[in-house]
Design brief:
Pfam families: PGM_PMM_I (PF02878), PGM_PMM_II (PF02879), PGM_PMM_III (PF02880). The chain is of the alpha+beta class. Helix content is 35%, strand content 20%.
């Protein structure tokens, strides 16, 4: 395949064609297929199969790229191909070159890592070819965590070719609503030393990828040989984990093994987080026997690696109880999310993890603002503001939204040190606003180590004590009201417009009900308090779905809130309310 790819220092990296010649070649649009031989202007070669069309726009998922990389699931055709991946990687290289503007004496470097998914190696090879084809150096880390990939843009260590100029993590998100374990899916997250790329950046990269892909005609093996020399492999995870170990030792007054005697079990869910037991906890003196599912396995045979998943949390809770451990730690696939379990089996996830992290951060930074996503509970607000003396700023769903809002608040003079989602994404100002599940757990370990060093407490009860007083609802449920995009009611319009119409109608109905009160400050959907609880109906960030969250002190009040929503939305025929119908019939 001869890619008409981005240029560096006046030359196209995969050919000897100058950038000026490339410009002129790109203007020609004629391309003749003849017996699987491609004739395109001055370039010709043999191709085994015609290229399939790819709609790169559909691969965007907010600030990430996601798609189907492996065939085998009915109704999910592959749209994240190796060839498309090369184009995306080359587009990122173009984007990076435009921003870094290196001189002729320096080649830019891009690090690449992946989680345990079965398509990881093939995609890593494709990404490497795309990056190297643009004249950039590729640093492969192999199995890695997403936080480590961002960290590689900050580390100063020439032995490991750091800092890199950009970084790509090959990973995807597990959705709780998926009907199967999504082994077939994968995606990309992109970083520079300024943090993760935003939605506009991803849109730009995919537009570039479309242009590059359209200019790819035949494969040139000569150029693939050239790219090999630009690829280096290093064990960067050893650098990253060493920094985590040092952070815990500092918190414990530089004691070498501050966790000696602590029994801590880790559940990596067969993702990329298995390193935490052997390379972080054990050097700190912790006992890790009973840790489970540490081996990477892209088929995820035990449970979904997701701190929000009930089966996953049950698995780590059982491991803690069976091993009589002091603490349990669980990670998602790429270790940017995490949760914990204390020695009694009580979970620190969702609102409880946010409460715990808020307590730790507000001890260090009294009065600071805690930024969360929109589905956090009223009880959490009371806990942060009345018990801890902080300020709770409830914003939108989406980890990037939450992080960017915390950064914005700081820029306008409102101090914020923690941005955290109920999903387990947590980012701290002290850690460059990186959502790092391992670093979140390090903050918990710091608390254990410092409490022991100062003689103020031993064991996970130190953490449990910090969330005492958090009011937790007896009923907490999320229902998903799907929009049928083929329904006649949409009349060719978008699901987003239809969903907004549903929300506007609900809002008008609430205005006329004295038993219900809209939240005075709200950034997403319609949030309403009443009957001793609350509900939030919002439009999904990416899917034709209206998620409905309801929390209440008892089932009867929860049903009353559900009926209030159902009464307002039942006239929208394209909206599937079957889940809500079933919920309100529970009494």
């Amino acid at each position: 395949m001869c890619n008409l790819l981005p240029t560096q220092v006046g030359k196209c990296a995969w050919t000897s064609i100058s950038s000026m010649q490339l410009h002129h070649l790109a203007k020609y649009k004629s391309c003749t297929w003849n017996r699987k031989t491609v004739y395109c202007n001055a370039v010709s070669a043999t191709s085994t199969t015609p290229m399939e069309k790819v709609d790169f726009r559909k691969l965007q998922n907010g600030s990430d790229i996601r798609g189907v990389a492996v065939a085998g699931v009915e109704g999910e055709p592959v749209n994240l191909t190796n060839l498309g991946t090369e184009a995306i990687a080359a587009a990122f290289a173009m984007w990076l070159l435009d921003r870094k503007k290196p001189d002729a004496s320096r080649r830019l470097r891009v690090s690449i890592g992946h989680d345990s998914r079965i398509s990881a190696q093939a995609l890593q090879d494709a990404v490497s070819r795309g990056i190297a084809s643009a004249g950039l150096d590729v640093i492969q880390y192999g199995l890695a965590s997403t936080p480590a990939m961002f960290n590689s843009t900050l580390t100063v260590n020439e032995e490991f070719f750091c800092p890199v100029d950009g970084s790509i993590m090959i990973t995807d998100l597990f959705l709780l609503t998926a009907s199967h374990l999504p082994y077939n899916r994968n995606g990309f997250k992109f970083f520079t030393n300024g943090g993760g790329l935003g939605k506009a950046d991803i849109k730009d990269i995919l537009e570039r990828a479309t242009s590059i892909y359209d200019k790819i005609y035949v494969e040139g093996f000569e150029n693939r040989e050239k790219t090999d020399s630009a690829v280096k492999k290093v064990d960067y995870m050893s650098v990253y984990t060493s920094d985590l170990v040092k952070a815990v030792r500092r918190a414990a007054q530089d004691i070498e093994k501050p966790l000696e005697g602590f029994h801590i079990v880790v559940d990596a869910g067969n993702g990329a987080g298995g390193f935490f037991a052997a390379t972080v906890l054990e050097p700190l003196g912790a006992i890790t026997t009973g840790s489970q599912f540490l081996e990477p396995d892209g088929m995820f045979p035990n449970h979904i690696p997701n701190p929000e998943d009930k089966a996953a949390m049950k698995a780590i809770t059982q491991a803690v109880l069976d091993n009589k451990a002091d603490l349990g730690i669980i990670f998602d696939t790429d270790v940017d999310r995490s949760a914990a379990v204390d020695s009694t089996g009580s979970e620190f996830n969702r609102n409880r993890l946010i409460a715990l992290m808020s307590a730790i951060v507000l001890e260090e930074h009294p009065g600071t603002t805690i930024v969360t996503d929109s589905v956090t509970s009223d009880g959490l607000t009371t806990f942060i503001e009345k018990k801890l003396g902080g300020k709770h700023h409830r914003f939108k769903r989406g980890y990037k939204n939450v992080i960017d809002e915390a950064i914005r608040l700081n820029s306008v003079g409102e101090e914020s040190h923690l941005a955290i989602e109920t999903s387990g994404h947590g980012a701290l100002k002290e850690n460059h606003w990186l959502d790092d599940g391992a670093y979140t757990m390090v903050k918990l370990l710091n608390k254990l180590a410092s409490a022991r060093a100062s003689g103020t407490g031993v064991g996970s009860e130190v953490l449990t004590h910090l969330v005492e007083g958090l009011d937790e609802p007896a009923v907490a449920v999320e229902l998903r009201l799907k929009i049928d995009q083929n329904h006649v009611d949409l009349k060719g319009g978008s699901f987003r417009d239809y969903g907004e119409a549903v929300l506007q109608h609900l809002e008008s109905k609430i205005d006329g009900d004295p038993k219900l009160q809209k939240a005075p400050v709200n950034y997403e959907g319609v949030r309403v308090s009443g009957f001793g609880g609350w509900f939030l109906l919002r439009l999904s960030l990416h899917d034709p779905v209206l998620p409905l969250n309801i929390e209440a002190a008892n089932s009867e009040d929860a049903v009353k809130l559900g009926l209030a929503v159902l009464g307002a939305v039942k006239e929208f025929s394209a909206l599937d309310t079957s889940g809500l119908d079933k919920f309100v019939q529970r009494l």
